[in-house]
Amino acid sequence: MTSSERPHVLIVGAGFGGLYAAKALKNAPVRITVIDRRNHHLFQPLLYQVATAGLSPGDIAYPIRAVLGRQKNVRVLLAEAVGVDLASRKVKLRDGEISYDYLILSPGVRHAYFGHNDWERWAPGLKTLEDALEIRRRILLAFERAEREPEEAPRHALLTFVVVGGGPTGVELAGAIAEISRQVMVRDFRAIDPREARIVLIEGGPRILPTYPEDLSTKAEAQLKRLGVEVWTNSVVTSVDASGVVVAGQKLRSATTLWAAGVEASPLARSLGVQLDRAGRVIVAPDLTVAGHPEAFVIGDLAVLGDKDGKPLPGVAPVAIQQGRHAARNILRATSRIPPEPFHYLDRGSLATIGRAAAVADFGWIKFSGFFAWLSWLFIHIFFLIGFRNRFIVIFEWAWAYFTYQRAARLITGNINGQPSDSEE
Amino acid sequence: MTSSERPHVLIVGAGFGGLYAAKALKNAPVRITVIDRRNHHLFQPLLYQVATAGLSPGDIAYPIRAVLGRQKNVRVLLAEAVGVDLASRKVKLRDGEISYDYLILSPGVRHAYFGHNDWERWAPGLKTLEDALEIRRRILLAFERAEREPEEAPRHALLTFVVVGGGPTGVELAGAIAEISRQVMVRDFRAIDPREARIVLIEGGPRILPTYPEDLSTKAEAQLKRLGVEVWTNSVVTSVDASGVVVAGQKLRSATTLWAAGVEASPLARSLGVQLDRAGRVIVAPDLTVAGHPEAFVIGDLAVLGDKDGKPLPGVAPVAIQQGRHAARNILRATSRIPPEPFHYLDRGSLATIGRAAAVADFGWIKFSGFFAWLSWLFIHIFFLIGFRNRFIVIFEWAWAYFTYQRAARLITGNINGQPSDSEE
Lengths: 425, 425
Hints:
By secondary structure, chain A is α/β, with parallel strands linked by helices. Chain A has helices at about 15-25, 45-50, 55-60, 65-70, 130-150, 150-160, 170-185, 215-225, 270, 315-335, 370-385, 390-405; strands at about 10, 30-35, 40, 60-65, 75-80, 80-85, 90-95, 95-100, 100-105, 110, 160-165, 200, 230, 235-240, 245, 250-255, 255-260, 265, 280-285, 290, 295-300, 305, 350-355, 360, 365-370.
């Protein structure tokens, strides 16, 4: 079989799902093309640390070419997919098109504003490195502006940070901002005391970390409060603008609002012409394919699939990784004319970190919180980081931060003069 | 003497000059205000390594507050100076003004296009972190686009990199691009061979590194050629656009042109109403003050002063550091009613690096090139980096790059879709 006769596997998106699918096909008799809008794989579970000046972008991102460069049956293209034509087996790019024999669609999701897209300028979300740098810029700039603000009311607003959404990202962001203000910046200012910063985490439902067991939600809330974070549950945000947010008719004045409250599918999903859920995600068959198209797989955050109890699988890295590998195996089966197998998620547990030596862990057979949960969180994240260099640097940065209470990446880059509002006016 | 009676020293710009001036006044009976448009001090000698994916922004930048946070007589303000009123001893800010008893003006310089400011969009210069990230984006994107370009002529243009200006920055950029293409990216692409990239360094004068002894220029040129860089001397660029540059009536097609060919003073200089040189820099008295204003010092790249032979001092970090300390000492003398002393530059030598194990060194009493010049360059740059953490990380990154031939920071961020031209159209 010559290489041009080998079936062509097209993987759209080099997140966890796409990357692990490509790796699982390493020795397979297929030609693989990986396309991504970015030249790097992003380790999203640590993105909040870039947003809060703990890590640099280069520590959690790795060039896709460098990951797959030695895998001879892969080529990597920097390209943006804008649509899928399932009937003719083609993916439309912003500039051109690529045909495939097998498709693995793993473009991920974006944050969503429940129909209020105008809120985005006042309350950025956290999905890309650019998002993280913008959030870092806003947080650091708020302290800088507070130092120069002579009036009390606007100074209070500058020192108030609102995080909307009590899932893992919101909890991690709120905890990290509290750490910066309470521990890192203590000696840096003259006119303000950064410890006076007010951090409010707003969750619409009755408890934070709603996908975790209830006792861990309670423990996470206690740990956040110990760090100085106000946790508002059963609180729905009805308005966001430059001056802050409105919750239950009450105005909360804040110069910095961050959004961690929901996701929305890639527009690619709509182009499939198949059944979608309310967030626009693709409802897939048990073998991860699209109805009627055994050659087209959808995996990761974009796919909707229930676990053995019918509960939808969460949008986390382990699900994407296992689905990527499973899709790869089903493609191998198809090339050998073996029927596909259904996907079963092996849930090894969930972890969320709140701050220095504070986290909650749920491994199914055991639940715990505090220092040991935090250590587990550290080791598991280091283990899944790609590349020895990145692991080494992140271990060093964390050890450095732990012992010195300093944060390395406290840089304001990009638009330096503007208030958040200036940059988009 | 109460603190409000203490004279107020205003330092504009926290580059090498401003920062070392503030540190030299550590135990002085003065109140110090340091203002900068940025929240970080930038180690400019290594900026070209950020532009060529060897280091991350956080490795060579350090928050000014973190450097000066423990120095009790200093406050740091994020603010942009837009003018100086020498008569009333006030600095105008973009938002407000600050009065002073003593002024140290060290805002630095920008790159200049000799009246062709429209060239900037096609040929970015290298002075800020944002500049460096934009250059990194263009270099990496050119390889990505070449991988997808089926036609030969545009592919050649994408793999041609032009660096205009044969000073240290131009030499370092050209050498680093050659290294990336020859050594780092070798296995990463399928359709192109990055080793075919053409790198052209264009210098208007008769030799590169014109401020160095002539034999070192010759050696630097030989080392660049060994890396695969074409060195064009006596070559003046007369046009720059999206398709490349024109040199002596001949078109050189290139998708990526970088500018390292000249500097221009900060507009602040004009507001002084004193004598400027052709590049708009301030001609200072031997004690570093402005004529008629013994309380106003100008230091660093913005100041023009001759050495003992009347030759103007170069715009390098050691000059700025020594001038910063000297201005601080003259202010201390003034507060004790002791007359100021003239500044004398102690030239400890010059170093320029060409690439892996390649550099030239001129320490006055000894000149050498090659591996040992490169080692000297490494140690001196590590020594002057601020902060243990940054030193450690940079040593690690360099060792890692040396032994693995990899570069950590190969990320394309910012505008990902665009050609260089798109972003500003």
